[in-house]
Design brief:
eight-stranded parallel beta sheet, binds D-xylulose, 16 helices, 437 residues, binds cobalt (II) ion, alpha/beta
Length: 437
């Protein structure tokens, strides 16, 4: 029995369409900058939010109506849920998905039983993937929900928690490989601290590096060639997460010799929690070759926590796509909707509205970004702003031909700096509006 019997495959109907179950901008085959839209985005559905989100919040229990869910968290229900999920991806036309080990299969009474449960469900995932062609963008392990991880996993004060987490990642890597996963994500979970009074930060960070190194080594051993990602987030659940932002993550990777193996998975709402914009984080990662994948969502600046809303703001998607295009597009990565419907949006159809809205906003953003790039006005204004570096003393400094003494001599001869080149923030915003509006 189909889980969404009233919903057919979502079709592109064009900008004039008023059908809420159709795309107005996302046309999978449409070519933009020489590549089909589907390959630009590599849209992915997050198993945890879409299938396991109940709508519970600190003030009340879940609200979601999910008629396919059995009463208990059994392996049989988990297998059925996989079929529902893949039906959803197929009808939506999303080519990829992402999951945590514990999203897809329940824990058993021992690690061995838990692994067996996972294997049983993974067999169904494999079948469904083969049947439909839906692919795994990345896998990961949930190292934060179970109380054994109360102090974190790789950075726990309890060595056994580290060991359990290592066993879990070993299995998650095997399963990710088995499903042809194109990547594997480390997000901090509870890797961070609540108070420095009880924390040996250096020891914890050394443990985290050792943990990642073990994963990289094991991937090599089993022939998993997917890309590893580190996902920055500054706070939640701990007050200070170690994977704070792109800069902190890149520094950590370089300090521990992991930079060749691990790129970043940048999430919009995590960027804003860190006091950045997502375009800042993408640019910072991209300019250093660390831009791997994107967790697409949106926060609410009035609330200020990780609300994981669906991205529908075309300015936001335009800025993201400008940066993605600038750095050559995704290879192993993609746009994973790490986003959930609101507690009040409890009907199954809301899952479709939410993803359709996100995909359409990105399609529109891509087209606008491609036009901005094609007309080159913005790029020219940025280039012109730095024109003093193209010749004379600027070019000499960039060419390594100067030191403090020679520049003092230059300035003594010249006198002073004449401010040139208005920043033109307002003009540039108007220029961008010309493309967006
Ligand atoms: C949590 C978050 C995670 C990671 C995967 O804020 O974003 O879902 O993306 O563990
Ligand atoms: Co995320």
């Amino acid at each position: 029995m189909a889980a969404f019997p009233d919903i057919q495959k979502i079709q592109y109907e064009g900008p004039q369409s008023k059908n809420p179950l159709a795309f107005r901008h996302y046309k999978a085959d449409e070519v933009v900058e020489g590549k089909a839209m589907r390959d630009h985005f590599r849209f992915s559905v997050a198993y945890w939010h879409t299938m396991r989100g109940t709508g519970a919040d600190p003030f009340g229990p879940g609200t979601m109506l999910r008629p396919w869910e059995g009463a208990e968290d059994t392996v049989a229900n988990a297998m059925n849920r996989v079929r529902v999920f893949i039906e959803f991806c197929e009808k939506l036309g999303a080519g990829f998905f992402c999951f945590h080990d514990r999203d897809v299969a329940p824990e058993g009474s021992s690690l061995a039983e838990t692994n067996t449960n996972l294997d049983t469900v993974v067999r169904v995932i494999r079948e469904e993937m083969d049947r439909t062609g839906v692919k795994l963008l990345w896998g990961t392990a949930n190292l934060f929900s179970n109380p054994r991880y109360v102090h974190g996993a790789a950075t726990s004060s309890n060595a056994d928690a580290f060991a359990y987490a290592a066993a879990q990642v070993k299995k998650a890597l095997e399963v990710t490989k088995e499903l042809g996963g194109q990547g594997y994500v480390f997000w901090g979970g509870r890797e961070g601290y609540q108070t420095l009074w009880n924390t040996d930060m250096k020891r914890e960070l050394d443990h985290l590096a050792r943990f990642m190194r073990m994963a990289v080594d094991y991937a090599k051993e089993i022939g998993f060639t997917g890309q590893f990602y580190f996902e920055p987030k500054p706070k939640e659940p701990t007050k200070h997460q170690y994977d704070f932002d792109a800069a902190a993550c890149i520094n950590f990777l370089r300090a521990h010799g992991l930079e060749k193996h691990i790129k970043l998975n940048i999430e919009t709402n995590h960027a804003t929690l860190a006091g950045h914009t997502v375009e800042h984080e993408l640019e910072y990662a991209g300019m250093q070759g660390f831009l791997g994948s994107v967790d697409a969502n949106a926060g609410d600046l009035l609330l200020g926590w990780d609300t994981d809303e669906f991205p529908t703001d075309v300015y936001l998607t335009t800025k993201i796509m400008l940066t993605i295009l600038k750095y050559g597009g995704f290879t192993t990565g993609g746009l994973n909707f790490d986003a959930k419907v609101r507690r009040e949006s409890f009907e199954p159809v809301d899952l479709f509205y939410a993803h359709i809205g996100g995909m359409d906003a990105f399609a529109k953003g891509l087209k606008i970004a491609a036009q901005i790039r094609a007309e080159r006005e913005l790029a020219k204004m940025v280039r012109d702003r730095y024109s003093t570096w193209d010749s004379g003393v600027g070019a000499e400094i960039e060419g390594g031909k100067h030191d403090l003494k020679s520049l003092e001599k230059y300035m003594l001869g010249k006198g002073d700096v004449t401010p040139t080149g208005s920043g033109r923030k307002e003009l540039l915003e108007n220029l961008v509006n010309r493309y967006v509006l």
